[in-house]
Amino acid sequence: MTASAPPRHRAATPRTDAATIAPRPAGTTARRCRDAAIRIVVLGAAAAAWEAAARRADNLFFPAPTTIAAWMRDHWLGGPRSHLFLSDELLYNAGASLGRMLTGFAGAAILGIVLGLLLGRSRLAQDLTNPLVQFGRSVPPVVLIPVYFLLFPPGASTQIALIVTGAVWPVLLNTVAGARAIDPGLVDAVRVLKVSRARRIAQVLAPAAAPAVLVGLRISFSIALILMVVSELYAATDGIGHALISAQQSFDLPAMWAWIVLLAVLGNAGNATLAAATRRVLARHGHPEHQEPQR
Amino acid sequence: MLTLDALGHTYPAHGRASDHHALDHVSFTIAAGELACLVGPSGCGKTTLLRAVAGLLRPSTGTITLDGTPVNGVPDGIALVAQNYSTSLLPWHTAIRNIAFGLTPQRLPRAERGRRAAEALAAVGLADAGHKHPWQLSGGMQQRVAIARAIARRPRLLLMDEPFASVDAQTRADLEDLLLTVQRDHDITVLLVTHDIDEAVYLGHRVLVLGQGPSHLLADLRIDLPPHRDQITTRKLREFVRLRSEVARLVRVLVPASPPSPPAADERSSAR
């Protein structure tokens, strides 16, 4: 009855059956390759269909993917080697946007995790702050944009503050849920060990809450991306949103579509990174199931 | 070494019809080096008593004294092995790190912690499993790791709450013998809670019988069996059978008073 139990298929492994968590089942690599190939085919087919439809329609507002790609090549590539051959136009706008978004996202993450761990360990604090939290998370984040730009001068710090306050809620709520879900038996066991508070937080509370925290971070990331681009549409002098709205206003539609594609790529990259981190944490915890995000 | 004086505990009603009297005037003393087993029907307040001794629960009345000091919060130098091994180990740490984690408050050099953890792991027969995570181990092996974590701390008092109730019969017998060996080798004082009468008599130097509702101490029996116990031969001894029957009778006295019908209880006793 050790880890060398026979490999299982993907059928749900009950958590209690700790003895039979097998190493990755044989054949999974082949299956993954097949799945990846199918996904690429589907993506390619969709792009081809779009291309065909766009050419047939010959509509100014719906340029063909190849036209968009050509625009990307002409405007985004051709930079020096030190810039990975990327153009200044791309680096300047994407850099400005990403810098502000990641700063805001990091702020939201730190604030949400710290507050969440504190609230999660105190029922009283939770009860007292619950109306506030429920109110805060119910406000659609984008409606904060006009408010912030009315109250504060437009600029990077206003945008970062906007992203922090808009994106903090999912990570806060999920951290509270994660910290609260620690098994009472584990709490007792650790209390009897009398380990220091710092160790308890670092080695018990934080790892126990980590899967839930990561679920929250994924939702917060998508909110940060939305707030970043929408606030740049509204008031900014650089950034992806600014480039997008400028392209729209000058009827440079391939450019507009190109920036949209870039946003999709960035959103996907962020989500995939956080998903990979979640898988790693769950594997370390010994259970492969995913938690449902809490909103 | 450990003294309970008129210990009582009442859980407040919290929406139920009335308060729940879990414990009433329980008094006993355990000497250093003794292995005492506490038996009683389920729901009789055994776990409440153990949690109070561990300082995890403040009893409503009475006092607990450990080596002359009143217990007020979790005392230093105790260890607890719970029934549910799957929630008492940290799943993100390997077995050896789980054990070393329990040693961190003892201000030992890192190397000494590692050495002690490895030693404890070897003592429970898991010398080769140190690098494995709890979820890679069977239930019995996880419980061994929990026991190793407890003994590595060299506790003055080891508390065990139904430690073998969640493992299969063969593993249970192995773990019982492991406990006896470890207890003798390290001369640890143990208070073990169980609902299994045979187990209590087999393991204990003493058996304390707790009665139900609110529970009080029914009997305090000295177990005069040979110190070296064996799953087959000890359980066949006339004295073992006599003690087991005595404890069973004590526990059964309470059964007719509880809702399940008396005939069922009689059937059980005639089967024994």
Description of the structure:
The complex is a heterodimer of chains A (295) and B (272). Chain A is an all-alpha fold and 295 residues long. Chain A contains 10 helices and no strands. In chain A, helix 3 packs across helix 8 (197-234), helix 6 packs antiparallel against helix 8 and helix 8 runs parallel beside helix 9. The two termini of chain A are 40 Å apart. The relative contact order of chain A is 0.11. The model of chain A is unreliable at 1-23 (pLDDT under 50). With 272 residues, chain B is of the alpha/beta class. In chain B, 36% of the residues lie in helices and 22% in strands. Chain B has helices spanning 46-53, 95-101, 110-123, 139-152, 169-186, 197-203, 233-236, 238-252, 262-271, and strands at residues 2-11, 20-30, 35-39, 61-66, 69-70, 78-81, 157-161, 189-194, 206-210, 217-222. In chain B, the strands form 2 sheets. A 6-stranded mixed beta sheet of chain B has the order 6-7-8-3-9-10, with helices on both faces. A 4-stranded antiparallel beta sheet of chain B has the order 2-1-4-5, with helices on one face. In chain B, strand 7, helix 5 and strand 8 (189-194) form a beta-alpha-beta unit. The longest helix of chain B is centred in the middle third of the chain and has 18 residues, at 169-186. Chain B is globular, with a radius of gyration of 19 Å. The A-B interface holds A 1-3, 15-16, 18-19, 21, 183, 185-186, 188-189, 191-196, 199, 203-204, 207, 284-287 and B 51, 54, 56, 74, 76, 78-80, 82, 84, 86-93, 101-102, 104-105, 129, 132-142, 153, 159.
